[in-house]
Specification:
single chain; about 375 residues; mainly alpha
């Protein structure tokens, strides 16, 4: 076995270890934020008669919970118990899609001191933001006028409910998620039950592993890795979407799935146009958790869960299916990434305004 092969194997092992610790860091970061924001989320996560307020409750709650799967599962549970109406649930689910993208945008900031690498990473993270925002801008007013998503979801739920009623559905546990959770729990032991310390340590692990991943990927001859992705995973739009769906189902978190491609974009392994359909697949994959949670619930719970799936499917068909609309998230992501390279305060201002200031202001004004 020659030196070059040994070096390649060691680097490949290093990539896998760094990837695992990267996921541990993201999970720890999400858990810490979730615990810190749980009380706030509980206080605002109430039924509302104002669809606009409900939309931004979905955004802000998902930012706090760091998982659209968690938010939509909660919504499904609240609908099932009668604490939340379907009229309030559907806009919240739409908002959850926007809020879930905050994690990969935070991850991209780890590249901030590395010029073109940061530009690629920030564009890769924000294209998901802009797609979800555009989908909401198109579908939210249509839903408020015609209730197309809710009516279609009602048909599906009513049709299926008779077939699954009183059947116990086994929710498969993801081995990847379990392994990452174990790592996060191990790290948490050294935080003295302090969520702020846990958050700081998790952020440090995430950014350190992000740096290591990019370095290792670069040294592993990017051309070969690019060829692998081009030939097997991202060769067609449909493959990229399918991979996004399957990977998100495996890890049960679109935040983690989309965060995984950020360092690959930063390293130049994947292009923005390759990543875009992959994030759409992640949007569909993240709906599975809520669907499973709803299967043993009420018809209303199933309607809420199907609404999430249908919103994402309609969003993809409209935004990605129409070439002119498809270009909007790409152009917006490229524009803001250019500005972020010119001024390093842009990412921070963007995160605070889009994910905190606007949702919180509308919730407070609406209540």
């Amino acid at each position: 076995m020659n030196r070059e092969l040994i070096s390649t194997l060691l680097k490949a092992t290093g990539v896998l270890m760094a990837l695992y610790l990267f996921l541990v860091g993201i999970n720890g970061m999400s858990s810490a934020i979730k615990h810190m924001g749980a009380d706030v989320a509980d206080s605002i996560f109430t039924a509302t008669s104002n669809p606009m307020v409900a939309l931004f409750i979905g955004v802000f709650s998902t930012v706090l919970f760091q998982s659209s799967s968690t938010t939509t599962s909660l919504i499904v549970g609240m609908v099932s118990s009668g604490a939340l109406s379907l009229t309030g649930a559907v806009p919240m689910i739409m908002g959850a899609n926007i809020g879930t993208t905050v994690t990969n945008t935070i991850v991209s900031v780890g590249h901030i001191n590395r010029g073109s690498e940061f530009k690629r990473a920030f564009a890769a993270s924000t294209v998901h933001d802009f797609f979800n925002v555009l989908a909401v801008l198109i579908l939210f007013p249509l839903e408020m006028m015609f209730h197309g998503i809710q009516n279609t979801a009602e048909w599906f739920a009513t049709f299926l409910f008779g077939k699954i009623h009183n059947i116990d559905v086994l929710q498969a546990k993801s081995p990847i998620k379990a392994a990452v959770k174990s790592g996060s729990n191990f790290v948490e032991q050294f935080t003295f039950d302090n969520e702020i310390v846990y958050l700081v340590i998790s952020v440090l692990i995430t950014f350190l592993m992000l740096y290591s991943l990019v370095k290792l990927l670069r040294s592993l001859v990017l051309a070969k890795i690019e060829a692998f992705f081009d030939q097997y995973i991202f060769k067609t739009i449909y493959r990229a979407i399918a991979f996004g769906v399957l990977l998100t189902i495996m890890v049960q978190s679109s935040s983690i799935t989309t965060s995984l491609v950020v360092p690959l974009a930063g390293a130049g392994v994947l292009t923005l146009r390759q990543i875009f359909p992959f994030t759409l697949g992640a949007n569909i994959g993240t709906t599975v958790t809520a669907l499973l949670a709803a299967l043993t619930g009420t018809v209303s719970a199933l309607i809420a869960a199907f609404s999430h799936l249908l919103f994402n499917i309609f969003g993809i068909l409209i935004v990605y299916g129409i070439p002119a609309l498809r270009e909007i998230p790409l152009k917006c992501a490229e524009f803001i990434s250019d500005k972020a390279v010119q001024n390093k305060f842009v990412p921070l201002v963007y995160l605070l305004i889009v994910f905190v200031a606007i949702p919180l202001s509308i919730i407070l004004l609406g209540s």
